Amino acid sequence: MHKRPYVRCPHLSQTMFICVLFSFAAIIMKVAVIGAGASGLTAIKCCLDEGLEPTCFERSDDIGGVWRFTEHVENGRASIYESLVSNTSKEMMCYSDFPMPDTFPNFLNHTKMMDYYRMYAETFNLLKYIQFKTLVCNIRKHPSFQSTGQWEVTIDKDGKQQTSTFNFVMICTGHYSDPYYPLDSFPSIQQFQGQYFHSRDFKRSDGYKGKKVLIIGTGSSACDIAVELSRTAAQVFLSTRKGTWVTSRTSDKGYPWDACLFTRFQEWFKNKLPSSIVLWWTEKKINMWFQHANYGLQPTKSSQFRELVYNDELLSRITCGSVLVKSAVTEITATSVEFDDETTEKDIDVVIFATGYIYNFPYFDEPIIKADNSINLYRNIFPASLKKPTLGFIGLIRPLGPFMSVAEVQARWVTRVFKGLCNFPPQEAIMKDIAKKKENFIKRFGKPQQSNSLTMEYIEYLDELTSDIGAKPNILSFLLSDPALGWMLYFGPCTPAQYRLTGPGKWRHARNHIMTTWDRIVKPTRTRVVKKVEKSIAITFLLSAVCALTLLLAALMYQC
Ligand code: NAP
Fold first, then answer.
1. Is the CB of 179 under 6 A from ligand 1?
2. Could you give the CA distance from residue 178 to residue 358 in angstroms, rounded to a whole number?
3. What pLDDT is recorded for position 448?
4. Ligand 1 center to residue 133 CA distance, Å?
5. CA-CA distances (angstroms) from residue 20 to 23, 157, 420, 447?
6. Which residue among 221, 244, 292, 406 has the greatest number of ligand 1 atoms within 8 angstroms of its CB, and so is best to mutate?
7. Which ranges does the record mark as transmembrane (predicted)?
């Protein structure tokens, strides 16, 4: 007996299948992702999650961007020193649905960061979308741009140029490739007989034994390099114009600073209290480790928020005298340097300009964004000059918190905007939003400058973007339905997994991941299990008796 076929009319079903296939092919949207670093990798994944078709162009032969250490500085690429360690912790900076191994240390060096990127790329099969050794030389509007919003991307591979059309572009090239090297501000450097270079060119402390080194700037690079050189150099001088707040990577009870600081509870307080009180409290807390004024580091304008430097060793190097903090440089002569407090340091061998970076996008035909400090991007992503949201910058930001989780949320939001799943406001509203944000920025951080123009609050920004895609957790609802989780969401670290509990891209392990955050934080440091110290019964009894007696006495006195 014949079995009745499930599809009654095979021809009809075949036709339908082809129709579905064709209509599916018709709606496939091509996305050019420029760069395969921390932002590019998550951009590729987010495209795939949303059914978009990414093609990533990477100029070098590997993933990892700024975190890929190379012995030599490569033209056009970010470059790091060998001893670089992340200043945000693994639980706070990982991608939201891809935790770092619990055995990883809380703060990662470049080898571990690269291990993580490789795991991420392999797990989500991202490598096949990346074209390595491919330089993007030009991005311009397609002739049909006004109606389609499409882009033409020209690449150079093996000396051959090729142009393709894309529906969307995600710029993920970072902003640490082009050094800010203000030699114009130091014209006298021309007569300096020693060696001088930008911190981008620093790799390790070899070759500095017995030398006197001056470092200009007190950002993270300057402080890291000062600490490293202080072990070999004869003397390190750290010159600062405005001072800086230096704090430890670990905070209360030795937990990572960001896990302690970024909680929704503290965020609520911060937003409710006047910013003068928040600043006063922050300053007080930072000065509890060491009085910055006593170490010459106290910022001149403490009435504004600024990026902190996380460096556990600088304090001890200054205490030991191997690093000396100096004020701003006024004059550099053949062998000595003068400072604005009228002091002079003689016999300087090396000057390092740890003066940060500028952003630069040489591949645009027209100035999509200005390479100055007045950046006009809607939500730090979409250029205000473009009417259609078909090109976005991922990771063009310096959050006051972990970077990767921010880049990931940006990519999640952008891919949904591309698909038309998020409301995108008209240009007038965009301009108003940008103006309002700039006003707030000036109130909080002061006038935008090269070293702070991309600064952004952490939780506030993530919440803003995830609200749009429906991935922001509703704390009250969680407190009612799952109090333990609700408690952790509000009082615990605001980890990226918080944005994977609901909405598109929901991750089924998110709850468990959030609830076990502290376990994973202590795992890599608790390498020797310490048994709980049993309190002596006698002491417990004695303490209880004293308490009871005090209460009894207080009650009797009250009666009298
Ligand atoms: P940065 O944070 O931009 O700091 C630049 C420094 O140079 C500031 O102290 C600035 O002083 C000073 N400066 C700029 N122009 C100057 C001038 N004309 N004269 C004198 N001083 C001048 O640069 P960075 O330290 O290279 O850091 C770049 C980014 O990478 C930051 O986001 C940082 O957090 C990150 N980073 C992270 C790590 C890590 O994870 N361990 C390490 C290094 C860097 P003013 O403050 O007075 O403007």
1. no
2. 6
3. 81
4. 30
5. 5, 35, 21, 54
6. 221
7. 537-558
What is the pLDDT, as a whole number, of residue 554? 66
Take atom 15 of ligand 1 and give the residue whose Cα is closest.
355
- In percent, how much of the chain has pLDDT > 90? 79
Q: Verify whether ligand 1 is closer than 6 Å to residue 185 (CB atom).
A: yes
Backbone angles phi, psi at 329, to 5 degrees: -80, 135
Q: What is the model's pLDDT at position 530?
A: 86
Which residues, at least 6 apart from 330, have a Cβ–Cβ distance to it below 8 Å? 338, 339, 340
Regarding the beta carbon of 218 and ligand 1, being less than 6 Å apart is answered yes
Quote the ligand 1 centre to 494 CA distance (angstroms).
Answer: 26
Q: What is the pLDDT of residue 455?
A: 86
Share the mean pLDDT of the chain: 91
Residue 560 has pLDDT above 70, yes or no: no
Ligand 1 close to Cβ of residue 246 (< 6 A): no
pLDDT tier for residue 371 given thresholds of 50, 70 and 90: low
What's residue 449's pLDDT? Answer: 80
Q: Please check whether the domain covering 14-177+359-463 is classified as CATH 3.30.830.10.
A: no
* Exposed / middle / buried, residue 552 (Cβ in 10 Å: 0-12, 13-18, 19+): exposed
The domain spans of the chain are 14-177+359-463, 183-242+314-351, 474-559
Whole-angstrom Cα distance, residue 89 to residue 4?
61
Check residue 14 and give its pLDDT: 45
Best of 241, 351, 353, 406 to mutate for ligand 1, by most ligand atoms within 8 A of CB?
A: 241
Q: Which CATH class is domain 183-242+314-351?
A: alpha beta
What integer pLDDT is reported at residue 124 of this predicted model? 98
